[in-house]
Structure formats: C-alpha cells, structure tokens
Amino acid sequence: MPTQKFGMAKHFLDDGKAVPIKTRPFTIQLTFATSHHTQKVTFGNNTGYKNVKVFAVTAKAAVYSLGIELLKGIKQPLIKRRKYRRQSRNRLRYCEKIF
Length: 99
Hints:
alpha+beta
C-alpha cells in the first residue's frame, strides 16, 4: 500500500530491511516478515460512452485511479467495413451459362 511515511521508508532502505523496486513511482519491497495489517479498499469503475474511469479508494485517500478516453468517429469506418463485407457476400462468384 502507498505510504506517506517517507522517513520510515528511508530507514528501512538504510538498514537493509527493504529493497527498491521502481523509481517512478518510488516503490520498495520489504525483506522481512510483517504482521497481516490490511486496509479496506473499494474498487469502482465508470464506463461511459467517451470516457472510462477505474479507481480504488480507501476511507482517507485515493490509492489508484485511471482514466481512458475512447476513440471518436469509429462509426463511419464500421459502416464502410460492413458495406464491403455485404458486397463480397452478395457477389456472384460462379455464373451458370446462359446459352
């Protein structure tokens, strides 16, 4: 879980009780066993027509949030594709001889 106790994280790194995993965002992994303290996290998503949002929040702060803007003007290429597919399905490939 994210923390605001940066001094504690620095002491863990100096004492060798933690190792850095990533720099952006700065993430560490503890190398010793801890007790099972858990936080209640609520997951939510908002699927709209143009925007999709995903978030995870605790009672005090937001832990994770993500927003995606979907493509605009996708209807026209789909109509064009449908037209060409219908054309190819309805095209006569083999004609019987008329005479």
